[in-house]
Amino acid sequence: MEVKERRKEKERQKPTPKPTSDASVGKETPKTDTLVDVTETEAEEDSQTQELESIQTEIVPESAPSQVLELPAPQWGNVNQAEWMYHIPPAEKDIEMWAEEWSDYLMIWTEFKSIHVLSVSTFVKEKPFSDILGKVDAFRFIGESLVKKDVGEWLDEKKRQLRVYWRPLEEWGDIIYRWAIKTGKLRLDVQSIVVQESGQDFSKLPERDLHRIMQIMVDKGLAKWVDSKKGAILAVV
After folding, report:
1. Are 88 and 95 in contact (CB under 8 A)?
2. Using one digit for the tens of pLDDT, what is the confidence trace for 25-45?
3. Of 3.90.1150.10, 3.40.220.10, 1.10.10.570, 1.10.940.10, which CATH number belongs to 83-164?
4. Most CB atoms within 10 A, among 25, 28, 149, 199?
């Protein structure tokens, strides 16, 4: 009996386990360190993004370099590609056709270089003309071809100076008129164009042709004479 009573007494003396509430079951304590790390990471990423956007804003793309125009070669090629074109043909009928082809290229060449008066001394030194055998005779044959087509004119009896009209004088008159209206420089004369407007393409024209252009502008009603002897005009607005 004593043994049983002692056991009962021990059981009564055991502490009663505390009840566990449902709310606390399975609830984990938040990890403060992890939240701090995530917040710091996001802040760092935002900072890097803003910095990258700032750099991209400051970067200005470089403009593409302007293309430099190159003088086209003759359609038949150089002396190694078409040797026969660099020899004056022996037959007269062939010379005319040969000179006509070369004269077409000479028009392109002089316009590209803005040359209005071509001398034989320049012709014989410049490629591809310098590769022609009999260059002096070639200059005269080619020049005659331009004269026949009314786009060339000999300036001396020995035919050593050739005026090449790669742009008609009428067109030059229109260009000068538009420039005068745009800039407001309505009073023009030959000397002021040559001296004061040296940056303009038309200032390189021979003075004789500038006088003729002034006359053309007056005839077309684009200008009135101020002094015809000096080639002075007033553009009509």
Report:
1. yes
2. 444 444 545 444 545 555 555
3. 1.10.10.570
4. 149
